[in-house]
Amino acid sequence: xxxxxxxxxxxxxxxxxxxxxxxxxxxxxxxxxxxxxxxxxxxxxxxxxxxxxxxxxxxxxxxxxxxxxxxxxxxxxxxxxxxxxxxxxxxxxxxxxxxxxxxxxxxxxxxxxxxxxxxxxxxxxxxxxxxxxxxxxxxxxxxxxxxxxxxxxxxxxxxxxxxxxxxxxxxxxxxxxxxxxxxxxxxxxxxxxxxxxxxxxxxxxxxxxxxxxxxxxxxxxxxxxxxxxxxxxxxxxxxxxxxxxxxxxxxxxxxxxxxxxxxxxxxxxxxxxxxxxxxxxxxxxxxxxxxxxxxxxxxxxxxxxxxxxxxxxxxxxxxxxxxxxxxxxxxxxxxxxxxxxxxxxxxxxxxxxxxxxxxxxxxxxxxxxxxxxxxxxxxxxxxxxxxxxxxxxxxxxxxxxxxxxxxxxxxxxxxxxxxxxxxxxxxxxxxxxxxxxxxxxx
Length: 442
Description:
Blueprint: H1 2-30, E1 58-59, H2 62-65, E2 69-73, E3 76-77, E4 82-85, E5 92-97, E6 106-115, E7 124-130, E8 146-147, E9 151-152, E10 158-164, E11 176-182, E12 212-214, E13 223-230, E14 233-239, E15 246-252, E16 261-267, E17 274-284, H3 310-341, H4 347-374, H5 378-396, H6 419-440
Antiparallel strand pairs: 1-17, 2-5, 3-4, 4-17, 5-16, 6-13, 6-17, 7-10, 7-16, 8-9, 10-11, 11-12, 13-14, 14-15
Helix pairs in contact: 3-4, 3-6, 4-5, 5-6
């Protein structure tokens, strides 16, 4: 026990050291000198000239800057951050600015963090610009803005940039960023299950422009995003742990945003991240700022695949090892029963050899299923569902342990040691191991 505690302490110390080095590298990147190549970059002083609009902005400590904002749902305000949702299932939170935008051209720069302790997170959050219908003075109630569009009501009017973390359509391109738009005369039917593929704003200002991008902002420290709305076009730039903003998307919106309001929403589902807002700077733009940033000269934000996480590798390596034992137990059962059928082994001896292994296999299978359910790997669970159901039936009918007196009688083909049943169980576990190995590297 002492050795185990010492080993765990060493592992913890190693992880903390790794996190410290990672943070130091990130800080070095954030303080890197700007490039002098003549390219005007988002967020730089050359990209705008008007001051920050304090009544549209916030920064720590938030108890000072929050008089301009109203929040509800699961949102909480602390000294250092605004948390739209905790890393808890089925939560939704929102935050809306009480002061209307007074310009059709503006820029928002948001610093945020999306994080949880699990490999998979969700659902996501959004930065919305809503019309006067949703101002707090017109609505009462703590949850009047809450709904299923990443925490926002489905009847919203306006547009928003959405950061969709959870992969509903199975295309493995999340986290992804895109734009949703809805007007009173054109209410939409939302396609939740297909990552809103039918609802995206896809009209771009040029053939080389993108209407969505994929960026891995989860568990990557503080990230930043800039929304630049000018001339009826929305341009989005994202900065994660890199030293400069990258181009994400640009689409045509065509709305006059005067008398519109800035809002933030977030939602969790069966999997959950905490969504924290750290700072917001809002500026108005004018005609002189229109052509300052050339998106074609910027590095593009592209999905580079999920980076290997040591937590994920250890998790799926553990699942793989446990499944190897389960396969060994199935093979051992078949081997011992083959000797019983050839009269090389007495039933009492067979029961003595297998009963302890069977009991251990039951507990290991329970642990594996509990872990994959907590990780949100429902496809993995469904593959194992028939095997789990059989084990549950055996447990409820008190047939977990073998009894020598019953071994010579006619038995169900799915019972322990039967060729057909053992083959099906072996196939299920083999598929499970393959899935585990794939997940180690994905």
